[in-house]
Amino acid sequence: MTGPAARPRVLVLRALGLGDLLAGVPALRGVRRAFPGHRVVLALPAALGEAALATGAVDDVLPAEAPHRAVPSLTGWPGPPPEVAVDLHGNGPASRDALAALSPRRLLAFTGPDPPPDRPCVWRRDEHERVRWCRFLAAYGIPADPDDVRLPEPAAASPAPGAVVVHPGAEAASRRWPAGRYADLVRRLRSRGHRVVLTGGPGEDALVREVARGSATPSGDVLSGGLPFARLSALVARADLLVSGDTGLAHLAVAHATPSVTLFGPVSPRLWGPPPLARHIALWRPGPPGDPHGDRPDPRLMRIGVEEATEAALTLLAARHLPPDRAGPRDAAT
Questions:
Q1: Residues 6 or more apart in contact with residue 238 via CB below 8 angstroms
Q2: 289 phi, psi to nearest 5 deg
Q3: Can you tell me the distance from the alpha carbon of 197 to that of 202, in angstroms, rounded to the nearest whole number?
Q4: Residue-wise pLDDT tens digits, 214-264
Q5: Which range, of 53-67, 120-134, 256-270, averages the lowest pLDDT?
Q6: Are 71 and 90 in contact (CB under 8 A)?
Q7: What is the pLDDT at residue 189?
């Protein structure tokens, strides 16, 4: 964790989920380029350590997490204070103060205490997550490209190359399309001759089994229990298509240029969605923003029907062997 003693360290705080990590990759790469002689350490949940290192943007990880996406303690930081601390966690004083407690020589945050002298960075609620953090760094003279999202090709073998991956889970119920609709979608895709593999994260086995029963998916195509990141990354990278809600796997599909259909509910894809490329379709119903951490499916998510999701999936599957210039960007938010 400490690395060579002679190298100064940059500590970046983004102790959130997989989707947050992947949406932050462009900013992390900006930090990496801005401090080429430093060791870049990312504070995030221990379970995401492998994923963080796979980005190639960080040298070490500092395990740090707190319930309900709160700001974690950073008291596990070893050795002398970081040369630079970067708050990519949020815009409030809690995350800034957690970094400030380590007495870094320089602290970059939306909320002081080391604001850029000429271009103060103001938080915008209507800004896409990737763009927000790149703009934040630019205010400190650190260029970052919000489209710099690609991950290296995974070295691991895929457990189901060429399959359609359907991931029904999500951290919050508000972003979870009903299991019965996923089962109907899987049946329709399988009836068209596509192999469909179901995945689920830790704690989602019951949900995955429900979708499997409703769709008569063979047990060998049910990958529950939460795959290790290396296998999960390879699965998504070598899939023909990913269908999921607004969750971490949707960002992983973007990172591997895998075609995806993402079902959005409480949060607009204009804030968290994929780039406007033909290989990604974001289904969404406009309306007032909902609670992305709510305990029931969002009304906008419930307005997305099985036929619409199936049509989107089949459209991308039919076009998967076409060269990129055969289709233009598609905005499926209606």
A1: 158, 161, 162
A2: -60, 145
A3: 17
A4: 999 999 999 988 899 999 999 999 999 999 999 999 999 999 999 999 999
A5: 120-134
A6: yes
A7: 98
Distance, CA of 229 to CA of 169 (rounded, Å): 16
Separation of alpha carbons 98 and 160, rounded Å: 42
The answer to whether 136 and 121 have CB atoms below 8 angstroms apart is yes
* Closest by Cα among 222, 39, 235, 57 to 149: 57
Give the tokens for residue 234: 């390879």
- Here the tokens at position 253 are 């599909």
Inter-axis angle of helices 248-255 and 229-237, nearest 10: 60
- Mean pLDDT, residues 282-300: 93
pTM score of the predicted model:
0.92
Which are the contacts of 104, defined by CB distance < 8 A and separation ≥ 6? Answer: 11, 81, 82, 83, 84, 85
Phi, psi of 28 (to 5 degrees): -60, -40
72-75 CB contacts, 8 Å cutoff, 24+ apart: 72/15, 72/43, 72/98, 73/98, 74/11, 74/13, 74/43, 74/98, 74/99, 74/101, 74/102
Cβ atoms of 227 and 206 closer than 8 Å = no
